[in-house]
Amino acid sequence: MSEKKSEKKDLQSVNESQNEIITLENLDQLIIKRSQTLKGQVSRQSFDEMADDIELSEEEKKGIKKRNFMSSVGSALVNTLGGWLNPVIGYFKGVDKDISNAKKNKMLTNVVYELGHTKDSMEDVVEFLSSPEGAILANMSSRILDNYPPDSDKIAVLSKVLANIIKTFKDEKFSALFEKHKYALSQIERLTPQALVILANSTTYPDFPVDTDELLNEGSVIRTEWCYDFSRAFCNKKGIDEPDVINRVNHSIMLLIQEGYIQAYKEGPNTAKCKPTTLGSYLLTYLDENSDIKF
Q: What backbone phi and psi angles, to 5 degrees, belong to 116?
């Protein structure tokens, strides 16, 4: 099959119980199959049987206070519904595993494409993962990924970060870079994907109006509240006009300010400019300015 005709395929992640490849594209179908299995394990008859087994003494029915009575009912339910709870718990564990595998599959697939989608790029990924340092960094990335929903756009942000790390793997100074990468990932873990994309677009931050002390020199740090003014200017430049979306952008920008990644400086009379701090600039080498994520 030629490269022109070949379609982008996810790296394989096998569902052990169903022997199917788990991707974000077929994740919904696999969850439906699990739910059908669950329904088969817990029939209507089993519900009726369990209900018949839940009995309370006359003393519990008549003489116990409502709070204690409900506690007794809860204990009886837990003891009696074990046959129902176990399949449900097993279902959620299975779904959690499917989602986790699908997200890791998508991230590794994205990484290979970020590195050029060649045999060499795949070998680079394997070599990176096979090294002690690479395994640690990949595990940190995986841990961050577990906190993200199975959303392709958001996974793409972390994929670009990991790809940029792998690009430095063959550097003779990688051992020294390893600590830098660990620190960067620990900082990235603190931020939402939206906040990371906003930070990555720092070169296009618009000037924004703000009430400032006229005695402040140009370039001085703005100490007054400026988060919402900047959020509104940022959204205007990006063509974002929905109130709910503006609020989410504002929350992400507030997070960047509170964590010390961006700061505003006086640009002119009643005008300010937002710029990344030293810490923010540190992370920019791992991010992609062209990331396009839905807020």
A: 120, -10
Name the pTM for this structure. Answer: 0.66
- First vs last Cα of the chain: how many Å apart? 38
Do residues 184 and 272 lie in contact, with contact meaning Cβ atoms separated by under 8 Å? Answer: no
Q: Which residues, listed in sequence order, are joined to residue 264 by a DSSP beta bridge?
A: 274
Question: Which of residues 40 and 270 earns the better pLDDT score?
Answer: 270
Strand partners, 266: 272
Residue 145's Cα: distance from chain center in Å?
5
Instruction: Indicate the SS3 state at residue 267.
Output: strand
Confidence of residue 268 (pLDDT cuts 50, 70, 90): confident
Domains of the chain: 27-188 (no CATH), 193-284 (1.10.10)
Contact 196, 286 (CB under 8 A): no
Query: Phi and psi of 219, rounded to 5°?
Result: 95, -5
